[in-house]
């Protein structure tokens, strides 16, 4: 049986994708609930706020669709490429071969 996917912790909390996304959301003056409602109303499910909170806490998970939804619907301004790079930096090394496909 294979090991579960884990994420390497960022060197400092300020270096992680969660800190970056939280700082961008807060700079826009929005709450997690407001952002979750914005994308849930557009078909991204009732767990959107929960997923945003998990991303901001740097909990392990696949947040690509969440990041894409937040970016596509312009819920708050952030650099998508930067977030993906930060996420890649905390991913399990076994997934490194998949990273070029994520950036496409």
Structural description of this entry:
The protein has 104 residues and is mainly alpha-helical. 55% of the residues lie in helices and 0% in strands. It is built from six helices and no strands. The chain has helices spanning 17-27, 32-44, 48-56, 64-72, 80-89, 99-103. α2 (32-44) packs across α3 (48-56). The longest helix has 13 residues, at 32-44. The chain is globular, with a radius of gyration of 14 Å.
Secondary-structure map:
Blueprint: H1 17-27, H2 32-44, H3 48-56, H4 64-72, H5 80-89, H6 99-103
Helix pairs in contact: 2-3
How many helical stretches?
A: 6
Category from helices, strands and their pairing: mainly alpha
- Percent of residues in helices comes to 40-55%
Average pLDDT for all residues? 81
Task: Please indicate the percent range of residues in DSSP E strands (runs of 2 or more).
Answer: under 5%
Order of helices and strands: HHHHHH
* Low-confidence segments: none
């Amino acid at each position: 049986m294979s090991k579960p996917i884990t994420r390497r912790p960022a060197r400092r909390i300020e270096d992680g994708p969660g800190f970056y996304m939280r700082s961008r959301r807060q700079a826009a003056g929005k709450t997690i609930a407001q952002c979750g409602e914005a994308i849930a109303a557009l078909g991204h499910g009732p767990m959107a706020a929960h997923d945003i909170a998990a991303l901001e806490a740097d909990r392990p998970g696949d947040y690509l669709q969440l990041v894409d939804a937040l970016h596509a619907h312009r819920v708050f301004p952030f650099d998508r490429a930067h977030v993906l790079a930060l996420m890649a930096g905390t991913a399990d090394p076994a997934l490194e071969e998949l990273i070029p496909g994520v950036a496409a």
